[in-house]
Amino acid sequence: MMLALSSHLNTYLTIAAFLFACGIYGLIHHRSLIGMLISGELVLSGASLNMMAFNRFLAPDPTVGQIFTLFIMGIAAAEAAIALSIIIAVYRNYKSIDAEDLQDLQG
Amino acid sequence: MGSNLYSADGLAGVVFLGLVAATVAGALVAVSAKRLVRSVAGLSLCFTGVAGLYYFLNSPFVAMMELLIYVGAVCVAIIFAVMLAEPRSEEKVGKGGGLSAVFGIIASGIVFFGLRKVAITSHWSAATKAINNGSLTEVGASLMTSYSMVFELISVVLLVAIIGALVLAHPGRDK
Q1: Closest CA to B134 of A65, A50, A10, A70
Q2: Residue in A closest to B113 by C-alpha
Q3: How far B159 CA lies from chain A's nearest CA (Å)?
Q4: Most buried of A96, B63, B74, B144, CB within 10 angstroms?
Q5: What ipTM was reported for this prediction?
Q6: Residue range B1-88 in CATH 3.40.50.80
Q7: What average pLDDT is seen over chain B?
């Protein structure tokens, strides 16, 4: 039954796996550093959705998953800030954010 | 359980399907768009859908935080970075562009179907009895008692991240 999907654990786990797989694809395929950062955010989002699904359906203490997800959000925000400042520093030096242009040490 | 489309449960099911569609479409746009601005737009659509899914998982506070932090802060920060550091509008497709797409699809397909098979075939034992109702009050109480150390540590992590971002991005601003 399509309309009762929201009360099944497997629905959320499948969506989380899809987000994770999309992130993996983006990490492999994207050539710019910002595109890789976006894919990394998708991976983290899939992990958070997994935590929240287990929290809703399986955990005896329903606050644990919420707190875990809040901490993932904090870490992801810090990671995005650091990664973006590194990207801007890289752009200032190389005039490019393409991952293949950053090859000073290649002979 | 919600077999009628016009009952409250059926309407909630339709809203849920819409949120799933937004999440999936946003994720697909985010990884397949040629221009970075469209990727960021897809990412924010995806995060909005995920926030709705959190609402369906009995966590309205986490849903609001998802909207505030991801859609409101992270996506806007990425858009600022795109404006500051995108030399050309199109992503250049050099050597190995098609090959990396093929390998990416193979790898992500393996990951997706593997995870999905594990999720469906596993036997998840249900919780015995919830010891609280998971409301915002309970979340705040356990954040201040059981997880107070982690709470302090993540404040330090965020402070270090702010200072580190300033230190990394500051040199050369006067050029």
Answers
A1: A65
A2: A17
A3: 9
A4: B74
A5: 0.91
A6: no
A7: 86
